[in-house]
Amino acid sequence: MAVRPNVIFIIADDHRYNAIGAAGDRTVQTPVLDALAQAGTMMARTHINGGVDGAVCVPSRACVNTGTHIFQATESQQIGDHARTNVIRPGAATMPSWFRSHGYHTHAIGKWHNDTASFNAGFCSGNSLFFGGMSEHCQVPVFDYNADGLYPPESRRIETKFSTELFTDSAIEFIEQYANEDPFFLYLAYTSPHDPRTAPEPYASMYDPEQIQLPPSYMDEHPFDNGELDIRDEKLAAYPRKQEEVRRHIADYYAMISHMDHHIGSVLQALNASGQADNTLIVYTADHGLAVGQHGLLGKQNMYDHSIRVPWLIKGPGVPAGRHIDALVYQFDIFPTLCDLAGIGAPDDIEGKSMNALIKRKMDSGRETVYSLYKDIQRMVKNGRWKMILYRHSAETGKGTDFVQLFDLMNDPWELHNLASDPIYRPQLIGLKQDLTDWMEHAGDPYADLFL
Protein backbone atom coordinates (compact mmCIF):
# COMPACT_ATOMS: atom_id res chain seq x y z
CA MET A 1 0.00 0.00 0.00
CA ALA A 2 1.33 3.43 -0.99
CA VAL A 3 2.14 5.84 1.82
CA ARG A 4 -0.60 8.43 2.00
CA PRO A 5 0.52 12.06 1.99
CA ASN A 6 0.25 14.33 4.99
CA VAL A 7 -1.96 17.38 4.62
CA ILE A 8 -1.42 20.92 5.87
CA PHE A 9 -4.57 22.97 5.34
CA ILE A 10 -4.00 26.69 5.96
CA ILE A 11 -6.95 29.08 6.01
CA ALA A 12 -6.65 32.83 6.57
CA ASP A 13 -9.34 35.33 7.54
CA ASP A 14 -10.30 38.12 5.08
CA HIS A 15 -7.56 37.45 2.49
CA ARG A 16 -8.78 38.63 -0.92
CA TYR A 17 -7.96 36.39 -3.88
CA ASN A 18 -5.67 38.84 -5.67
CA ALA A 19 -3.81 40.33 -2.68
CA ILE A 20 -0.88 38.03 -3.43
CA GLY A 21 2.11 38.84 -5.59
CA ALA A 22 1.66 35.69 -7.67
CA ALA A 23 -1.97 36.69 -8.32
CA GLY A 24 -0.93 39.99 -9.87
CA ASP A 25 -0.68 42.47 -7.00
CA ARG A 26 2.48 44.49 -7.60
CA THR A 27 2.55 46.12 -4.16
CA VAL A 28 1.93 43.47 -1.52
CA GLN A 29 5.00 41.39 -0.62
CA THR A 30 4.19 37.68 -0.30
CA PRO A 31 7.36 35.79 -1.23
CA VAL A 32 6.32 32.60 0.59
CA LEU A 33 2.89 32.37 -1.03
CA ASP A 34 4.45 33.31 -4.37
CA ALA A 35 6.91 30.42 -4.01
CA LEU A 36 4.06 28.09 -3.04
CA ALA A 37 2.20 29.08 -6.19
CA GLN A 38 5.31 28.54 -8.30
CA ALA A 39 5.98 25.13 -6.80
CA GLY A 40 2.36 24.07 -7.13
CA THR A 41 -0.93 25.11 -8.71
CA MET A 42 -3.01 28.26 -8.31
CA MET A 43 -6.77 27.92 -8.71
CA ALA A 44 -7.23 31.55 -9.66
CA ARG A 45 -11.05 31.74 -9.82
CA THR A 46 -12.17 30.16 -6.57
CA HIS A 47 -15.49 31.32 -5.10
CA ILE A 48 -17.28 31.14 -1.79
CA ASN A 49 -21.01 30.41 -1.52
CA GLY A 50 -21.93 33.20 0.91
CA GLY A 51 -24.42 33.13 3.78
CA VAL A 52 -27.23 34.90 5.58
CA ASP A 53 -25.24 36.58 8.32
CA GLY A 54 -22.78 39.47 8.35
CA ALA A 55 -20.12 37.07 9.66
CA VAL A 56 -19.63 35.45 6.26
CA CYS A 57 -16.62 33.60 7.66
CA VAL A 58 -18.94 31.25 9.60
CA PRO A 59 -20.82 29.71 6.65
CA SER A 60 -17.71 29.77 4.46
CA ARG A 61 -15.82 27.65 6.98
CA ALA A 62 -18.78 25.29 7.26
CA CYS A 63 -18.86 24.94 3.46
CA VAL A 64 -15.15 24.23 2.98
CA ASN A 65 -15.19 21.74 5.84
CA THR A 66 -18.27 19.86 4.62
CA GLY A 67 -17.54 20.13 0.91
CA THR A 68 -21.00 21.38 0.11
CA HIS A 69 -23.17 24.47 -0.37
CA ILE A 70 -24.35 26.46 2.60
CA PHE A 71 -27.93 25.17 2.73
CA GLN A 72 -26.63 21.63 3.14
CA ALA A 73 -23.65 22.49 5.32
CA THR A 74 -25.33 23.95 8.41
CA GLU A 75 -28.37 23.34 10.58
CA SER A 76 -29.97 26.62 9.53
CA GLN A 77 -29.51 29.52 7.17
CA GLN A 78 -32.51 31.51 8.34
CA ILE A 79 -31.74 35.16 8.92
CA GLY A 80 -31.40 35.86 12.62
CA ASP A 81 -31.12 32.22 13.69
CA HIS A 82 -27.72 32.86 15.27
CA ALA A 83 -27.91 29.79 17.52
CA ARG A 84 -27.87 27.40 14.55
CA THR A 85 -26.33 29.13 11.53
CA ASN A 86 -22.87 28.31 12.85
CA VAL A 87 -23.68 24.66 13.62
CA ILE A 88 -22.46 22.17 11.05
CA ARG A 89 -25.30 19.84 10.14
CA PRO A 90 -25.29 16.77 12.40
CA GLY A 91 -24.28 13.71 10.44
CA ALA A 92 -22.30 15.66 7.87
CA ALA A 93 -18.82 14.30 7.26
CA THR A 94 -16.39 17.16 7.76
CA MET A 95 -13.00 17.27 6.10
CA PRO A 96 -11.12 16.55 9.37
CA SER A 97 -13.56 13.82 10.47
CA TRP A 98 -13.35 12.18 7.04
CA PHE A 99 -9.55 12.13 7.05
CA ARG A 100 -9.61 10.94 10.65
CA SER A 101 -11.85 8.03 9.68
CA HIS A 102 -9.33 7.10 6.99
CA GLY A 103 -6.38 6.74 9.33
CA TYR A 104 -5.15 10.31 9.62
CA HIS A 105 -4.12 11.99 12.84
CA THR A 106 -6.04 15.27 12.65
CA HIS A 107 -4.70 18.24 14.61
CA ALA A 108 -6.22 21.73 14.83
CA ILE A 109 -4.62 25.08 15.54
CA GLY A 110 -6.27 28.49 15.57
CA LYS A 111 -9.75 29.59 14.57
CA TRP A 112 -12.73 27.21 14.38
CA HIS A 113 -15.78 29.41 13.95
CA ASN A 114 -18.34 26.62 13.98
CA ASP A 115 -19.73 24.41 16.76
CA THR A 116 -17.55 22.47 19.18
CA ALA A 117 -19.37 19.17 18.55
CA SER A 118 -18.27 19.09 14.90
CA PHE A 119 -14.81 20.21 15.99
CA ASN A 120 -14.27 17.32 18.37
CA ALA A 121 -15.73 14.81 15.93
CA GLY A 122 -13.05 15.92 13.49
CA PHE A 123 -9.88 16.36 15.47
CA CYS A 124 -7.76 13.92 17.46
CA SER A 125 -5.80 16.76 19.06
CA GLY A 126 -5.14 20.47 18.93
CA ASN A 127 -3.70 23.48 20.68
CA SER A 128 -4.16 27.27 20.76
CA LEU A 129 -7.81 26.79 19.83
CA PHE A 130 -9.87 29.91 19.13
CA PHE A 131 -13.64 29.41 18.91
CA GLY A 132 -14.59 33.06 18.47
CA GLY A 133 -14.90 35.33 15.46
CA MET A 134 -12.29 38.00 16.16
CA SER A 135 -10.17 39.42 18.95
CA GLU A 136 -7.32 41.80 19.57
CA HIS A 137 -4.33 40.07 18.03
CA CYS A 138 -2.33 40.34 21.26
CA GLN A 139 -5.24 39.32 23.48
CA VAL A 140 -6.30 35.99 21.99
CA PRO A 141 -8.76 33.88 24.03
CA VAL A 142 -7.76 30.26 23.40
CA PHE A 143 -8.44 26.80 24.75
CA ASP A 144 -6.41 23.64 25.11
CA TYR A 145 -7.82 20.62 23.32
CA ASN A 146 -10.37 18.66 25.36
CA ALA A 147 -11.11 15.11 24.19
CA ASP A 148 -14.53 15.29 25.87
CA GLY A 149 -15.50 18.28 23.74
CA LEU A 150 -16.02 20.56 26.73
CA TYR A 151 -14.80 24.13 26.44
CA PRO A 152 -16.30 26.10 29.36
CA PRO A 153 -15.39 29.81 29.65
CA GLU A 154 -13.35 29.21 32.79
CA SER A 155 -10.91 26.98 30.87
CA ARG A 156 -10.12 29.76 28.41
CA ARG A 157 -6.85 31.64 28.72
CA ILE A 158 -5.64 34.88 27.14
CA GLU A 159 -2.48 34.66 25.03
CA THR A 160 -0.56 37.90 24.58
CA LYS A 161 1.68 36.67 21.77
CA PHE A 162 0.51 38.09 18.43
CA SER A 163 -2.08 35.71 16.97
CA THR A 164 -0.14 34.88 13.80
CA GLU A 165 2.98 34.10 15.81
CA LEU A 166 1.02 32.12 18.40
CA PHE A 167 -0.58 29.86 15.80
CA THR A 168 2.65 29.54 13.83
CA ASP A 169 4.64 28.47 16.89
CA SER A 170 1.96 25.90 17.73
CA ALA A 171 2.13 24.49 14.19
CA ILE A 172 5.92 24.28 14.29
CA GLU A 173 5.77 22.50 17.63
CA PHE A 174 3.31 19.96 16.22
CA ILE A 175 5.43 19.28 13.14
CA GLU A 176 8.65 18.95 15.12
CA GLN A 177 7.16 16.62 17.71
CA TYR A 178 4.94 14.45 15.52
CA ALA A 179 6.29 10.91 15.52
CA ASN A 180 3.28 8.70 14.75
CA GLU A 181 3.32 6.36 11.78
CA ASP A 182 -0.11 7.57 10.65
CA PRO A 183 -0.15 10.48 8.20
CA PHE A 184 -1.24 13.78 9.73
CA PHE A 185 -3.85 16.34 8.74
CA LEU A 186 -2.87 19.72 10.20
CA TYR A 187 -5.59 22.38 10.17
CA LEU A 188 -3.93 25.78 10.65
CA ALA A 189 -6.43 28.65 10.83
CA TYR A 190 -5.06 32.17 11.13
CA THR A 191 -7.11 35.18 12.20
CA SER A 192 -4.99 37.47 10.03
CA PRO A 193 -5.42 39.70 8.07
CA HIS A 194 -8.76 40.40 9.82
CA ASP A 195 -8.99 43.68 11.67
CA PRO A 196 -7.83 45.13 13.95
CA ARG A 197 -5.00 45.34 11.44
CA THR A 198 -2.16 45.90 13.91
CA ALA A 199 0.81 44.04 12.46
CA PRO A 200 3.97 44.28 14.58
CA GLU A 201 7.07 46.06 13.34
CA PRO A 202 8.81 46.02 10.96
CA TYR A 203 5.68 45.02 9.04
CA ALA A 204 3.53 47.85 10.40
CA SER A 205 5.81 50.34 8.61
CA MET A 206 6.41 48.26 5.50
CA TYR A 207 3.85 50.11 3.37
CA ASP A 208 3.70 53.89 3.13
CA PRO A 209 0.03 54.89 2.71
CA GLU A 210 1.06 57.81 0.50
CA GLN A 211 2.66 55.35 -1.93
CA ILE A 212 -0.37 53.04 -2.09
CA GLN A 213 -2.08 53.14 -5.46
CA LEU A 214 -5.85 53.02 -5.14
CA PRO A 215 -7.52 50.23 -7.15
CA PRO A 216 -9.48 51.22 -10.28
CA SER A 217 -12.71 50.29 -8.47
CA TYR A 218 -12.13 52.74 -5.61
CA MET A 219 -15.22 54.88 -4.99
CA ASP A 220 -16.12 57.50 -2.40
CA GLU A 221 -19.37 55.64 -1.76
CA HIS A 222 -21.37 52.77 -3.17
CA PRO A 223 -23.68 54.02 -5.94
CA PHE A 224 -26.88 52.68 -4.31
CA ASP A 225 -28.12 51.05 -1.13
CA ASN A 226 -27.06 47.40 -1.35
CA GLY A 227 -28.92 46.60 1.87
CA GLU A 228 -25.83 46.37 4.11
CA LEU A 229 -24.14 49.74 4.33
CA ASP A 230 -24.52 50.14 8.11
CA ILE A 231 -22.86 46.94 9.27
CA ARG A 232 -19.78 47.04 11.51
CA ASP A 233 -17.31 46.41 8.67
CA GLU A 234 -18.56 49.44 6.74
CA LYS A 235 -18.20 51.71 9.78
CA LEU A 236 -14.43 51.23 9.99
CA ALA A 237 -14.01 54.33 7.82
CA ALA A 238 -16.03 57.49 7.44
CA TYR A 239 -18.65 58.14 4.76
CA PRO A 240 -17.99 59.30 2.15
CA ARG A 241 -14.68 57.44 1.86
CA LYS A 242 -11.57 59.56 1.79
CA GLN A 243 -8.61 58.49 -0.32
CA GLU A 244 -6.01 58.99 2.42
CA GLU A 245 -8.05 56.90 4.89
CA VAL A 246 -8.54 54.07 2.41
CA ARG A 247 -4.83 54.11 1.57
CA ARG A 248 -4.08 53.66 5.27
CA HIS A 249 -6.51 50.71 5.44
CA ILE A 250 -4.85 49.09 2.43
CA ALA A 251 -1.36 49.65 3.86
CA ASP A 252 -2.37 48.04 7.15
CA TYR A 253 -4.08 45.18 5.31
CA TYR A 254 -0.94 44.48 3.29
CA ALA A 255 1.19 44.65 6.44
CA MET A 256 -0.92 41.93 8.05
CA ILE A 257 -0.65 39.77 4.93
CA SER A 258 3.13 40.15 4.66
CA HIS A 259 3.57 39.36 8.35
CA MET A 260 1.45 36.22 7.98
CA ASP A 261 3.30 35.25 4.79
CA HIS A 262 6.60 35.35 6.68
CA HIS A 263 5.27 33.08 9.41
CA ILE A 264 3.77 30.62 6.96
CA GLY A 265 7.33 30.40 5.67
CA SER A 266 8.47 29.37 9.14
CA VAL A 267 5.91 26.55 9.16
CA LEU A 268 7.12 25.34 5.78
CA GLN A 269 10.75 25.51 6.94
CA ALA A 270 9.85 23.28 9.88
CA LEU A 271 8.15 20.89 7.47
CA ASN A 272 11.29 20.77 5.31
CA ALA A 273 13.46 20.13 8.36
CA SER A 274 11.18 17.26 9.40
CA GLY A 275 11.85 15.41 6.14
CA GLN A 276 8.10 15.27 5.37
CA ALA A 277 7.87 18.02 2.75
CA ASP A 278 7.97 15.75 -0.28
CA ASN A 279 5.06 13.72 1.05
CA THR A 280 2.83 16.57 2.21
CA LEU A 281 -0.04 18.29 0.43
CA ILE A 282 -0.21 21.99 1.30
CA VAL A 283 -3.33 24.07 0.72
CA TYR A 284 -3.67 27.80 1.27
CA THR A 285 -7.05 29.55 1.14
CA ALA A 286 -9.16 32.10 3.06
CA ASP A 287 -12.73 32.23 4.30
CA HIS A 288 -13.68 35.18 2.04
CA GLY A 289 -12.24 38.30 0.49
CA LEU A 290 -12.57 41.97 1.45
CA ALA A 291 -13.39 45.23 -0.32
CA VAL A 292 -10.97 47.59 1.52
CA GLY A 293 -12.25 50.63 -0.38
CA GLN A 294 -13.38 49.05 -3.65
CA HIS A 295 -16.87 50.10 -4.78
CA GLY A 296 -17.03 52.40 -1.77
CA LEU A 297 -17.11 49.39 0.55
CA LEU A 298 -14.79 48.08 3.23
CA GLY A 299 -16.26 44.69 4.17
CA LYS A 300 -17.18 41.34 2.65
CA GLN A 301 -20.99 41.61 2.76
CA ASN A 302 -21.36 42.01 -0.99
CA MET A 303 -21.19 40.01 -4.22
CA TYR A 304 -18.29 41.73 -6.00
CA ASP A 305 -15.32 39.55 -6.88
CA HIS A 306 -13.10 41.22 -4.30
CA SER A 307 -15.32 39.70 -1.61
CA ILE A 308 -16.52 36.37 -3.01
CA ARG A 309 -13.24 35.18 -4.53
CA VAL A 310 -10.51 33.64 -2.39
CA PRO A 311 -7.03 32.18 -2.85
CA TRP A 312 -6.58 28.49 -3.46
CA LEU A 313 -2.95 27.43 -3.73
CA ILE A 314 -2.08 23.75 -3.64
CA LYS A 315 1.28 22.00 -3.70
CA GLY A 316 2.46 18.46 -3.05
CA PRO A 317 2.70 14.97 -4.51
CA GLY A 318 0.68 14.66 -7.68
CA VAL A 319 0.26 18.43 -8.10
CA PRO A 320 1.97 20.01 -11.13
CA ALA A 321 4.29 22.96 -10.51
CA GLY A 322 3.72 26.39 -12.00
CA ARG A 323 0.09 25.82 -12.99
CA HIS A 324 -2.30 28.80 -13.09
CA ILE A 325 -5.88 27.66 -13.66
CA ASP A 326 -8.62 30.14 -14.55
CA ALA A 327 -11.54 27.71 -14.52
CA LEU A 328 -14.51 28.49 -12.25
CA VAL A 329 -14.42 26.49 -9.02
CA TYR A 330 -15.90 26.62 -5.54
CA GLN A 331 -13.88 26.67 -2.36
CA PHE A 332 -15.85 23.62 -1.19
CA ASP A 333 -14.28 21.71 -4.10
CA ILE A 334 -11.09 21.61 -2.00
CA PHE A 335 -12.39 18.78 0.22
CA PRO A 336 -13.00 16.20 -2.53
CA THR A 337 -9.87 17.34 -4.38
CA LEU A 338 -7.74 16.60 -1.33
CA CYS A 339 -9.47 13.24 -0.92
CA ASP A 340 -8.63 12.40 -4.52
CA LEU A 341 -4.98 13.41 -4.13
CA ALA A 342 -4.70 11.46 -0.87
CA GLY A 343 -6.23 8.34 -2.39
CA ILE A 344 -9.31 8.25 -0.17
CA GLY A 345 -12.73 8.48 -1.81
CA ALA A 346 -14.80 11.55 -0.94
CA PRO A 347 -18.25 11.33 0.72
CA ASP A 348 -21.01 10.55 -1.76
CA ASP A 349 -23.51 13.21 -0.67
CA ILE A 350 -21.53 16.41 -1.09
CA GLU A 351 -21.83 19.18 -3.64
CA GLY A 352 -18.09 19.59 -4.06
CA LYS A 353 -16.35 18.17 -7.12
CA SER A 354 -12.78 16.98 -7.23
CA MET A 355 -10.63 19.22 -9.42
CA ASN A 356 -7.79 16.72 -9.47
CA ALA A 357 -8.33 15.98 -13.16
CA LEU A 358 -8.38 19.70 -13.95
CA ILE A 359 -5.16 20.23 -12.01
CA LYS A 360 -3.50 17.36 -13.89
CA ARG A 361 -4.75 18.55 -17.31
CA LYS A 362 -7.06 15.54 -17.68
CA MET A 363 -10.10 17.77 -18.13
CA ASP A 364 -10.40 21.24 -19.65
CA SER A 365 -12.89 23.05 -17.47
CA GLY A 366 -14.21 23.39 -13.97
CA ARG A 367 -17.76 24.52 -13.29
CA GLU A 368 -19.98 26.12 -15.94
CA THR A 369 -21.46 28.56 -13.44
CA VAL A 370 -21.14 29.53 -9.77
CA TYR A 371 -23.67 31.24 -7.52
CA SER A 372 -23.29 33.19 -4.28
CA LEU A 373 -25.73 34.80 -1.87
CA TYR A 374 -25.99 37.28 0.94
CA LYS A 375 -28.99 37.40 3.27
CA ASP A 376 -32.30 38.12 1.51
CA ILE A 377 -30.88 41.08 -0.42
CA GLN A 378 -28.16 39.90 -2.84
CA ARG A 379 -27.74 37.00 -5.28
CA MET A 380 -24.95 36.48 -7.82
CA VAL A 381 -24.39 34.11 -10.70
CA LYS A 382 -21.59 34.06 -13.26
CA ASN A 383 -20.26 31.99 -16.09
CA GLY A 384 -16.83 32.28 -17.60
CA ARG A 385 -17.40 35.80 -18.91
CA TRP A 386 -20.67 37.29 -17.72
CA LYS A 387 -21.76 38.08 -14.18
CA MET A 388 -25.12 39.19 -12.84
CA ILE A 389 -25.95 40.49 -9.36
CA LEU A 390 -29.57 40.86 -8.26
CA TYR A 391 -30.40 43.15 -5.36
CA ARG A 392 -33.68 43.26 -3.46
CA HIS A 393 -35.25 45.65 -0.99
CA SER A 394 -35.66 43.73 2.25
CA ALA A 395 -39.15 43.75 3.71
CA GLU A 396 -37.58 42.70 7.02
CA THR A 397 -35.04 45.51 7.41
CA GLY A 398 -36.44 48.14 5.05
CA LYS A 399 -33.01 48.44 3.45
CA GLY A 400 -31.72 47.58 0.01
CA THR A 401 -32.69 48.38 -3.55
CA ASP A 402 -34.41 46.44 -6.31
CA PHE A 403 -31.57 46.58 -8.82
CA VAL A 404 -29.66 44.53 -11.39
CA GLN A 405 -26.01 44.64 -12.37
CA LEU A 406 -24.48 42.90 -15.39
CA PHE A 407 -20.72 42.87 -15.91
CA ASP A 408 -18.60 41.68 -18.82
CA LEU A 409 -15.70 40.33 -16.77
CA MET A 410 -13.49 39.77 -19.79
CA ASN A 411 -13.51 43.49 -20.64
CA ASP A 412 -14.39 44.87 -17.22
CA PRO A 413 -12.66 42.78 -14.52
CA TRP A 414 -13.01 45.57 -11.93
CA GLU A 415 -16.82 45.51 -12.30
CA LEU A 416 -17.24 49.19 -13.11
CA HIS A 417 -19.63 49.28 -16.06
CA ASN A 418 -23.16 48.01 -15.47
CA LEU A 419 -24.60 46.76 -18.77
CA ALA A 420 -27.96 45.59 -17.42
CA SER A 421 -29.99 48.43 -18.95
CA ASP A 422 -28.52 48.01 -22.44
CA PRO A 423 -30.95 45.97 -24.60
CA ILE A 424 -28.01 44.54 -26.55
CA TYR A 425 -27.19 42.38 -23.52
CA ARG A 426 -30.70 41.14 -22.83
CA PRO A 427 -29.78 37.59 -23.98
CA GLN A 428 -27.00 37.46 -21.40
CA LEU A 429 -29.39 38.61 -18.67
CA ILE A 430 -32.02 36.05 -19.63
CA GLY A 431 -29.46 33.24 -19.62
CA LEU A 432 -27.97 34.25 -16.29
CA LYS A 433 -31.38 34.60 -14.65
CA GLN A 434 -32.13 31.03 -15.68
CA ASP A 435 -28.77 29.90 -14.32
CA LEU A 436 -29.54 31.65 -11.03
CA THR A 437 -32.99 30.06 -10.88
CA ASP A 438 -31.48 26.63 -11.46
CA TRP A 439 -28.90 27.15 -8.72
CA MET A 440 -31.37 28.44 -6.16
CA GLU A 441 -33.72 25.54 -6.78
CA HIS A 442 -30.87 23.04 -6.66
CA ALA A 443 -29.46 24.46 -3.43
CA GLY A 444 -32.83 24.89 -1.75
CA ASP A 445 -32.36 28.65 -1.29
CA PRO A 446 -35.16 29.60 1.14
CA TYR A 447 -35.26 33.13 -0.26
CA ALA A 448 -35.42 32.14 -3.92
CA ASP A 449 -38.96 33.47 -4.40
CA LEU A 450 -37.72 36.98 -3.65
CA PHE A 451 -35.42 36.86 -6.69
CA LEU A 452 -37.58 35.06 -9.25
From TrEMBL:
Look up the domain of life of the source: Bacteria
Q: What GO molecular function annotation could you give as one example from this UniProt entry?
A: arylsulfatase activity
Record keywords, A-Z: Calcium, Hydrolase, Metal-binding, Signal
Q: Where is the signal peptide?
A: none
List each copy of the Sulfatase N-terminal domain by range.
Answer: 5-344
The family database entries (Pfam families) matched by this protein are listed as: Sulfatase (PF00884)
**Reported cofactor(s):** Ca(2+)
Q: Which family is this protein grouped under?
A: Belongs to the sulfatase family.
Q: Any idea what this protein is called?
A: Arylsulfatase A family protein
